[in-house]
Each structure stands twice: as C-alpha cells, then as structure tokens.
C-alpha cells in the first residue's frame, strides 16, 4: 500500500495525494538525477579546485595529526581572516625554526580549544600561565623531535631558545651558546675584545660597560695601528681600566 500525502487548506477542504512506495538510495550532489555516470566523474575530475597553501603547512610528520586535525576543521569553517597567520611560516626561517613556529601556531589553537572545553563542560578554568606552559611544552616536543636543521641566525636561535628547542646543526655549522651573567648591584661589568689582521696587521680593541640590569653605561672602540692579537687583547684591558679610573668607578668586573 502506498503512502498518502495530505494537505489541509484554510477552507477546510483536505486534498489526498497517493505516493508510490520507493526504495531508499544514495544521491550525488550537483547531479540532476542523482545517479553517478562515468562522464560526470570525468567532468568533476577536470574541475580544478582552489589550492590552499595553508594545508601544506599544518600537516607535518613533526606535529601530532590530532593537533593538526582541529586546525584543519577550523580553517574549513571559512574563517578567512585567520589565513594570514600562516604567512608567518613562509618567512625566511631555517627548516627547524619553521617547523617550530608552525607547531607553536597549531598548539596555540589546540590549547585554547582545550581550555575552552574544560571551562564549558567540566567547569575547570585553566589560567593563562598554564595554557602558555602547555603551548611551550608541546611545541618543544615537535621542535626537538624534528630532524630538520637550524641555521646560524641569531633570530632563529632566539626563537628556538624561547621554546626550549635545542638547535640541530648541519655538518658544516657549529653554534655555541654563550651566556652573559650580570654583575651584582652597584657593580659594573666590562666585556672587552680585540682583533688583529694576521700576526702583526691592522688591529683595534673595544669594550662595553653594563650594570646589574644589563643597561649599557659606556662603550669604546679604538684603532691600534699594527699589533699582534696578544697586544690587542692587553690594550683592551688597559683601556677599560683607564676608563673606569677616569670615571671613578671602583667596583668593576673585567
């Protein structure tokens, strides 16, 4: 027995239209009949879809797919204004620094989503510092586990350092980290250096005085004519002591 479709009109008259029973079937979008034919598949394949550059950025073997998947879903919700942030990954970074920045963006979105769900569904409000710690920790895992190498750029080194990522050197590059420790309060610290071209070539020396908060108090740079490397270093130390004496600085760390 067929189904019956009824319409009630304002006049009180009811129209009954019999509908023939049919089997459920899959229908394809963008087709008039809903049936898929070889020609339809061929024409669909010929249609060139828009290439999205950000899709190549978020999918990486160094970033967990579960993190990238949330970002992929979010980007497909037509939040076009967010596409600009992926341009940060297209700058002239080293390979290791680039994957670290990408991981930071992906983990930023995931951490915010996690904090939002915790507050909404579990009434657990996560403070900002905990979210930042979570972002840095997850980004550090991706940056350290990556096999990509870093460059000798100070900019790249600073970014990797902020995310607790150890630099991966190439075979012909070596980066050595030098830590500068500030002096005590009411003390000044002077770092000096000298350079000579060859054993007895043109030479110069220089120095910089800084206080306990790393503010520069005074600096100098002077040519020395021709001298050896040892003489240049010695002249730099003597000049720093002379500057301190003339300015009546008693507490000096040279």
TrEMBL record:
<dbReference type="InterPro" id="IPR012337">
    <property type="entry name" value="RNaseH-like_sf"/>
</dbReference>
<dbReference type="InterPro" id="IPR036397">
    <property type="entry name" value="RNaseH_sf"/>
</dbReference>
<dbReference type="GO" id="GO:0004523">
    <property type="term" value="F:RNA-DNA hybrid ribonuclease activity"/>
</dbReference>
<feature type="domain" description="RNase H type-1">
    <location>
        <begin position="191"/>
        <end position="254"/>
    </location>
</feature>
<dbReference type="InterPro" id="IPR044730">
    <property type="entry name" value="RNase_H-like_dom_plant"/>
</dbReference>
<dbReference type="InterPro" id="IPR053151">
    <property type="entry name" value="RNase_H-like"/>
</dbReference>
<feature type="domain" description="Reverse transcriptase zinc-binding">
    <location>
        <begin position="39"/>
        <end position="99"/>
    </location>
</feature>
<dbReference type="Pfam" id="PF13456">
    <property type="entry name" value="RVT_3"/>
</dbReference>
<dbReference type="GO" id="GO:0003676">
    <property type="term" value="F:nucleic acid binding"/>
</dbReference>
<dbReference type="InterPro" id="IPR002156">
    <property type="entry name" value="RNaseH_domain"/>
</dbReference>
<dbReference type="Pfam" id="PF13966">
    <property type="entry name" value="zf-RVT"/>
</dbReference>
<dbReference type="InterPro" id="IPR026960">
    <property type="entry name" value="RVT-Znf"/>
</dbReference>
<protein>
    <submittedName>
        <fullName>Uncharacterized protein</fullName>
    </submittedName>
</protein>
